Amino acid sequence: MNSVHILALSCLIGLASAGIYTDRFNTQYNKIKTKGYFSKVGGIPYHSVETLIVEAPDQGHQTTSEAFSYWIWLEALHGKINKDWQPFNNAWETLEQNIIPVSASQPTNNFYTPSHPATFVPEQDEPSSYPSAVDSSVPVGQDPLYQELVNAYGTSDVYGMHWLLDVDNIYGFGNTPGNCELGPQAQGPSFINTYQRGSMESVWRTIPQPTCDSFRFGGQNGYLDLFTKDNSYARQWKFTNAPDADARAIQGAYWASQWAQESGQLGAISQTLSKAAKMGDYLRYALFDKYFKQIGNCVSPASCPGGYGKSGAHYLLGWYYAWGGALDTTNGWAWRIGDSAAHFGYQNPLAAYALASDPNLRPKGATAVSDWQTSLDRQLEFYEWLQTAEGAFAGGATNSWNGRYDTPPSDLTQNTFHGMFYDWEPVYHSPPSNRWYGMQPWSVDRLAQYYYVTGDSKAKALLDKWVDWILPNIKIEAGKKYTLPATLTWTGAPPNVHVNVESTGSDVGTGAATARTLAYYAAKTNNTQAKQVAKDILDIMWTQYQTDKGVSAPEAADTYNQFNEAVYVPPNWQGYYPNGDRIENGATFISMRSWYKNDPDWGKVESYLNGGEVPTFTYHRFWAQADIAIAQGTYGILFNE
After folding, report:
1. What is the torsional sign of CA 102, 104, 110, 116?
2. 369 exposure class (CB count in 10 Å sphere: 0-12, 13-18, 19+)
3. How high is the pLDDT of residue 184?
4. What is d(CA 58, CA 66) in angstroms, rounded to the nearest whole number?
5. Overall pTM > 0.85
6. How would residue 8 be classed by pLDDT, with cut points 50, 70 and 90?
7. Are 628 and 508 spatial neighbours (Cβ–Cβ below 8 Å)?
8. Confidence at residue 2, expressed as pLDDT on a 0 to 100 scale
9. Of 254, 313, 256, nearest to 450 (Cα)?
10. Under 8 Å CB-to-CB from 13, ≥6 apart: which residues?
11. Known catalytic residues?
12. What's residue 4's pLDDT?
């Protein structure tokens, strides 16, 4: 962004001032647009301004579909406040060009056989149990969406975001849109993948791999035989979708639809809204069991039958859906999978409502509207089933115990959700996927928005109980500090599941999400305490945690001792990353990422690894900074302050 653009942006923001909190939105928006959050090539939002950060992405200048979805929401609110919708359209165009695989990146979808979507590969508990053997004897279901989507859009391609981009191509794969393994000389962004070895594979134990594997890098079979054991291996492509991010992008588009319509500017974004609707059509893959098996009491891979029609749909937003195929376009094949596990934290009733009810976001698929209406009802039922006696929401449910259709413990078979089994930590156990408090306000905020729009009494009952739980667990030191839950522990199972606050903190991202949740609730119910606590959190973070790049609090990175953690690589397996880093038995997180030693912050970590103090960082994550801006602006809109 050059100086002329910055000046124009500053002038626009100055003209749009309307209140304390919308002014704060504009101030934060300006920082996000000018302080290093976007790549110089392509204008792509980074995961964080800082490069040395390891959490879900393992480097800050990667990015996620999560960041893109927050960007869409941010620009929707910018349109509302400043009556300027071009940035919203531009953000979706950048999303479409860079994180939705173009047709050339998914070249063999036309070979896909919906009567046999994929071949079963059991998930294992530990990375050391991989590669996992393909088992073609296990029955799978049929994909009822494929032909419907082809009929609607005239293509076999999937219109969904891949979850992870190496924006600056630091790994060097060079899987840029439409290209496969160009290598380190490619500018990026480059598609990459991580996490493919079971529930105990934390970010520190991953072996990042290219989404397009032509065997140029890695070992004899590229990276494929690290994960899957087969008789032979073919050069192939594969992508993974994070459904909560696609749903958040659709949620942002819904608000854009409402706000643009209010100001008579709907026509300015109509084409973008049709793209959001299309994304929602394909997002239905997240509503199905991983192998399209029937939902309910699925306790044996061999005997649990495949689903037909919609019998393989749980209608909840699963943790992922994925698709892939051969690179050879003359002898092609392709596959698609959903996910058997659903986490409450990924549910988005507002997105389901929008896709079922907003004429500006109506998908073209013949059964899409009815599917999303069913999903909306099912999600609300899911919240009811998972709500603790205290009010917080427990983890989720799975149709495939241990990821291989095992029989769960007997105490979990007594009270199921449409035959799916309760899991307090769906999908990931290192760390547990429902330990982080942030899952609560992320998901409950969407529930509160849905309630604000519809007045649904079911949603209100759920929110009443949640608000009664969270308010006593937020401590306000007037004008100086707020604390709220940071980590949670869980006991029991539905209908007798309980939550305990294990630790507290003052995180700005989860604080913003909590404040916005309370603000939507207060605006609908006139709950003065919820409004005041929301205001206090927003005021304190704004006055106490200002930085030159946004709003952030220092945090101790006590997990960074794991830079030296061993990463399991099978004995006798050897391969290489494009820069020459070796993938072999005995490798560690840092040995496979030697480029980290050139990072300007590496000295702080190196000192810690050598016995020094825990390093402290002040991170500016894109999602959190956008969440802060959105929370401030939303409060201003809801209460005209």
Report:
1. negative
2. middle
3. 97
4. 15
5. yes
6. very low
7. yes
8. 43
9. 254
10. 26, 27, 29, 30, 82
11. 66, 244
12. 35
d(CA 80, CA 22): 10
Cα(285)–Cα(316) distance, rounded to whole angstroms?
Answer: 10
Give yes or no for residue 584 having a pLDDT over 60. yes
Distances (CA, A) of 225 to 128, 207, 233, 296, 577: 13, 12, 8, 32, 15
At 1, the pLDDT band (50, 70, 90 cuts) reads very low
β pairing state of 62-64 and 164-166: antiparallel
| Residue 95 DSSP class | H
Question: CB under 8 Å to 506, separation ≥6 — which residues?
Answer: 481, 482, 483, 484, 553
| 312 and 141 Cβ atoms separated by less than 8 Å | yes
Q: List residues bridging with 120 in a β-sheet.
A: 135
> What residues have CB less than 8 Å from 564, skipping those under 6 apart?
588, 589, 590, 609
Counting Cβ atoms within 10 Å, is residue 19 exposed (0-12), middle (13-18) or buried (19+)?
A: middle
Tell me the three state secondary structure of residue 475. strand
Question: In CATH terms, is domain 558-616 a member of 3.40.50.2300?
Answer: no
CA gap 638, 524 in Å, rounded: 9
Cis peptide before 45 (omega within 30 of 0): no
Among 509, 557, 319, 346, CA closest to 443: 346
How many helices and strands (H and E) does the chain possess?
A: 15, 20
Q: What is the CA radius of gyration of the chain?
A: 23
Cβ–Cβ < 8 Å for 516, 575:
no
CA distance 511 to 552: 11
The confidence score (pLDDT) of residue 17 equals: 45
DSSP letter at 133?
E
Q: Residue 264 region, left (φ>0) first, then alpha (ψ -120 to 50), else beta?
A: left
Q: Which residues pair with 342 in a beta bridge?
A: 318, 397
C-alpha 315/C-alpha 54 separation (Å) is 32
The DSSP code sequence of 354-368 is: HHHH-GGG---STTH
Which pLDDT score, from 0 to 100, does residue 545 have? 98
Q: Give the per-residue pLDDT at 5.
A: 41
Please classify residue 492 by burial: count the beta carbons closer than 10 Å to its beta carbon, then call 0-12 exposed, 13-18 middle and 19+ buried: middle
Q: Could you give the angle at which helices 457-470 and 508-525 cross, rounded to 10 degrees?
A: 130
Q: What is the pLDDT of residue 18?
A: 62
Provide the strand spans (E) within 478-572. Answer: 481-491, 498-505, 555-556
**Of 361 and 6, the one with more pLDDT:** 361
pLDDT at site 298: 97
Give pLDDT, residue 70.
Answer: 99
Contact (CB, 8 A) for 594 and 581: yes
- Dmax (CA) of the chain: 68
Helix (H) or strand (E) holding 55: none
Place of tokens 């061993």: 566
Mean pLDDT score of the chain: 96
Query: Judging by beta carbons within 10 Å of its beta carbon (0-12, 13-18, 19+), is residue 271 exposed, middle or buried?
Result: exposed
Please state the φ and ψ torsions of residue 110, each to the nearest 5 degrees. -70, -10
- Residue 310 CA, distance from chain mean position: 25
Domain ranges for the chain, please list them.
Answer: 558-616
- Residue 122 pLDDT > 80, yes or no? yes
